[in-house]
Design a protein that fits this description.
By secondary structure, this protein is of the alpha/beta class. It has a nine-stranded mixed sheet with strand order 7-6-5-4-3-2-1-8-9. Helix 9 links the parallel strand 3 and strand 4. Helices cover 48% and strands 10% of the residues.
Amino acid sequence: MGVKQSLTKAALSTAMNYISGDPEKNLPKLLKFIEGIGWDKTQLAVFHQVLDDPQNIWYQYLMDLWHDVDNDVLKAVFQNFALNATLFGAREQARNEKAYGCNIPWAILMDPTSACNLRCTGCWAAEYGNRLNLTYDEMDSIVRQANELGCFFFLFTGGEPLVRKGDILRLCRTHPDCQFTAFTNATLIDEAFADEMLRVKNFVPIISVEGFQEATDARRGQGTFRKVEQAMALWKTKRLPFGLSCCCTSANTEVIASEAYFDQMIAWGAKFCWLFTYMPVGKDAVPELMVSPQQRKFLYEQVRKFRGTKPIFAIDFWNDSEYVGGCIAGGRRYLHINASGDMEPCAFIHYSDANIREKTLLEGLQSPLFMAYHNNQPFSDNLLRPCPLLDNRGALASMVEASGAHSTDLQNPEDVHDLTDKCSAAADRWQPVAEELWRCSGHCGCKS
């Protein structure tokens, strides 16, 4: 049974009423409603801890969210992300995982286009130019197939996804029960687009920024930082939610993980941030930009500290793996579909043995490469070493070779051993640091 059938219209209407008006009075009522429809008890305990303590930083975060975001947009996010994608979607995903014997994703990343209006240092997207595109009908089919499996959360990547603004808006209108977002450089955001987002309500951008002006312009081009700031100011004025995406490199990790930068993200109006570490993928990769073990540890410690003091939801993509059971790629929580239709396990793993133009989404999830992920996750008992490329020497190469997957880089196919060679030293250096952090967190019995 789908999400629409799982939640009655009357119950949903009740929940929406709790999002309107005074949050201090209505949020406890909303929590009581969620308890009645069977939310995870561990998550409920966290929400109670927050709402029962007005001094808690996350209480302040929720109050700010209610005051800073357009009410109708907030309702759409609650319905589509919290209920459809997370609560009811997770139940359907679990049923389908059992029925089909494979991973079923919570989220799908897809590239509407390989085109980008910037050429950022170390980014593989610029290699492809504007030659590759998913059609609107292909993206619509992906969404519909995903809905059948219980997936209602979609992230556009690229390239620069907002090159395809019109089709993204059309998808938002066609699927009002889904939550859409996009990793964007924000230079194509303007007032007309912001007004359309207020109308569709189910789109939230994730804006890429590398730190302050010097670091951002150094990687993304002179003047980019000012355009990004203008886009954030516009989004904030319109009371539209947005997040930030920060690629941590050897040149900027200390800045991105600093208190000053977290304070600046909050001042810009960001409600969440995704922190990634640089991966040396593609012919123009710059391995020297990979973070050191000390920098990755610094990021680990800073994010955990700021979660108790800063009203912004920070996601540390690699270092938070302990909370999600290790690697989330290969469809375990998400997968990536590039602009050629290739189904890839991860946005950073450009190998595939299934194409959405030749197979259904489910058939791709049952392909040898995706099943190799399914059968080998987690790749280490130490969940601070989640990645089969960055953290576990040889794990990715073994799966690619066994599955017969091919490189999806059309311009300069990369042998998987050449890619893993660029990451092997980093994996070896991170291992003892990760094991010490794991022990200090109260864990033991890690694989070597």
